Amino acid sequence: MDAHVPVTILLARFEDLVSAGLRSLIGADATLRIVASDVHHGELDSLIAEHAPRVAILSFGSLHALTDIRRLSAAHPATRLVVLANHPTPGECSQLLALGATACLGKEVEGRDVLNAIHLASRGLHVLPHATPARSGAPLLPDLLTPREADVLDQLQLGRSNSEIALALSVSVETVRTHARSVFRKLGVRSRRELTTLTAPRR
Prior knowledge:
alpha/beta, Rossmann fold, Arc Repressor Mutant, subunit A, 5-stranded parallel sheet, 5 strands
């Protein structure tokens, strides 16, 4: 990428103060250029296709499901997805990266961290929130889901049975069970019901 060409940015819709802060922050950096802002969730596909931004900054709370990230990433592979959330957990960030996001940040981070994340993401480098001390000896970040585990997660979120998932993915039912157990373990849940609760975006 030419260092003299500004990194183009699409901003999704955020709360007024967050939106104003992002526009001011990005506008003050001559190497960045906003091509669309205050983009409603339903307009993301069409406006990313129209403007082809290098980076799209999305609000975690506006996602209908975490698999929206997987869909957007697959539909627009040249656009890096940076997700801002209110105090995201390691599990949420891990899952977002597994589903195709390039960066996951808390809305409480400092401006320079947001700019740094944008620049790193524009080069395809993954960015996670600064580590915080783990409680009860838990690891700071769980393992990322593998692509196949993410496929199984998609199917689980659709409410499909193990047999239906096996048929859809052309694998055995036992393979589905193995992947599902791994998904539950990595995301820290014990059941499909807990998984549904975890993967519904919170504001």
